[in-house]
Amino acid sequence: MAKKPSVPKGTRDFSPLQMAKRNYIFDSIQSVFIRYGYMPIETPAMENLTTLMGKYGEEGDKLLFKVLNSGDFLSKADEKTLVERDSAKAVSQLSDKGLRYDLTVPFARYVVQHQNEIVFPFKRFQIQPVWRADRPQRGRYREFFQCDVDVIGSKGLYNEAELVQIVDEVYSRLNINVVVKLNNRKILAGIAEVIGAKDYFTQITVAIDKFEKIGFDKVTEELLSVGLSAQSVEKLTPVFELSGSNFQKLELLKQFLGDSEIGLKGVAEVDELIRMIDALELKTPVELDLALARGLNYYTGAIFEIKSKDVEIGSITGGGRYDDLTGIFGLKNVSGVGISFGADRIYDVMEQLNLFPDTITTVTDLMIVNFGGEESVYGLKLAAHCRSVGIATELYPEKAKMKKQMTYADKKGVKWVVLAGVEEIESGVLTLKNMATGEQLTVTVEEALEKIKSL
Questions:
Q1: 265 in a structural domain
Q2: What is the DSSP string of 37-60?
Q3: Burial level of 299, CB count in 10 A (0-12/13-18/19+)?
Q4: Cβ distance 455 to 405 under 8 Å?
Q5: Are 301 and 370 contained in the same domain?
Q6: Per residue in 432-443, pLDDT tens?
Q7: Last residue of a domain, which of 265, 289, 309?
Q8: What is the spatial distance between Cα 134 and Cα 114, in angstroms, rounded to a whole number?
Q9: Predicted confidence pLDDT, tens digits, the chain (455 residues)
């Protein structure tokens, strides 16, 4: 017996209706991006591993899907490495490409490679799939779509404020209640400095990034395990206990970070950004969240996560400021900032809350019965005319028994069926059947079109 086919864990097939709903999300997001002056680009699914490795931190590097070299991929492998089962060394010999982990690093590579063709500041959006060798679970997939919007070549905090405007407009269109969580990596760097753990900044951000998932006790255990002293961890505790409004938290932070220049700079940036956002009077609330770290290494300034207020699913949008990501590829001192909408999690939220409009459908408006011969030629011409006036129309693709054609139309959910045999064609009329009610009408072509478009 043949083995039942399947797809890899963490990947999915999508039905026509699911695709219609996903396209609704993509179209809604893209239309907002375009309104703000962002332009589309695309980059390859595969990138050189030299482009990807070392940009996401140690944990991110582990989640990269590596692609075996073409042909005899073992030919360049060292036999000793294979015998010793040194996987890290073996990968470098067997693979020089990988599937992209996100859209930001490929974007930075694109900017450097095409810098002479780009007008800076460069505002781009990108809607493409990414892949991560993660453990699949609810809201976490191995293949998923990101809808990214970035501006590079500008350091102004106006860009961050505009991104929050985009978030507000996108989620207003999709009718999802969200909250914007905001922090700044300079604040986190200042905190690491003040608690005497400046050299452990990366480990601190990676651990803090898990705060919501594992809680403070587990974060504390992880920080101690990577080398932080109990005294440093104890100094960190008050940071997570700060409460009050955004500006009250900032005032308390100023006191806590009094001896840290970089920390105070982060506080000043957040203060300015929140004041700009408040002036915009957006619908979406913005909260300073000091447990937000965005564990990716390339973030240097403001960081964002957007969460649904009605569904527990983790962040559905995230991003931040990266001051010198292009510098890794040879283009120094070019700052950028961007956010990424997670289309798959947005879909899950909308599906759970029943937020998709009833008008989203894959149903064909009209099917023309195929009688064969001259009648089928007439049907082809009629179908073309119907489509030209905006009616989704199909001609049954072959001559078949009436019962078979009507069963097809019924199962597919076709709204209307037209029967045009020799008699109807000669008399200039059609038989129009409403598949929902069973009602049949004898009408002219134009009367049929008017009837179909009116319902």
A1: yes
A2: T-EE----SEEEHHHHTTSSHHHH
A3: buried
A4: no
A5: no
A6: 999 999 999 999
A7: 309
A8: 32
A9: 678 899 999 999 999 999 999 999 999 999 999 999 999 999 999 999 999 988 887 778 889 999 888 777 776 767 666 665 666 666 766 778 999 999 999 999 999 999 999 999 999 999 999 999 988 887 789 999 999 999 999 999 999 999 999 999 999 999 999 999 999 999 999 998 998 888 888 888 888 877 777 777 888 888 888 888 888 888 888 887 888 999 999 999 999 999 899 999 999 999 999 999 999 999 999 999 988 988 677 899 999 999 999 999 989 999 999 998 898 898 999 999 999 999 999 999 999 999 999 888 878 999 999 999 999 999 999 999 999 999 999 999 999 999 999 999 999 999 999 999 888 888 889 999 999 999 999 999 999 999 999 87
Where does 322-436 have alpha helices with state H? Answer: 343-352, 373-388, 402-412, 422-427
CA 449 to chain centre: 39
Q: How many CB atoms within 10 Å of residue 119?
A: 8
- Within 10 A of 163 (CB to CB), how many other CB atoms are there? 24
What is the spatial distance between Cα 264 and Cα 174, in angstroms, rounded to a whole number? 37
Segments forming the whole domain that contains residue 242:
178-309
Task: Give the residue carrying structure tokens 């019924």.
Answer: 410
Do 183 and 278 belong to one domain?
yes
Q: CB–CB of 384/376 below 8 Å?
A: no
The C-alpha torsion from 240 through 244 and 247 to 248, rounded to 10°, is -80
Question: Has residue 436 been placed in a domain?
Answer: yes
Determine contact, residues 328/55, Cβ cutoff 8 Å: yes
28 near 174, Cβ under 8 Å? Answer: yes
Closest CA to 183 of 203, 209, 202: 209
Q: Which residues contact 284 (CB under 8 A, 6 or more apart)?
A: 164, 167, 168, 171, 172, 178, 179, 180
Strand ranges of the sheet holding 178-184, from the earlier edge strand across to the other edge:
39-40, 122-131, 143-152, 336-342, 315-322, 302-308, 178-184, 286-288
- 270/288 Cα distance (integer angstroms): 8
Please name every residue paired with 277 in a beta bridge, in sequence order, or none if there are none. Answer: none
Amino acid residing at 102: D
Inter-CA distances, 32 with 23, 125, 304, 431, Å: 14, 10, 19, 44
Amino acid at 258: G
Q: Are the C-beta atoms of residues 351 and 139 closer than 8 Å to each other? A: no
182 and 263 fall within a common domain: yes
Strands (E), 244-301: 286-288
Q: At 193, which helix (H) or strand (E)?
A: helix 185-194
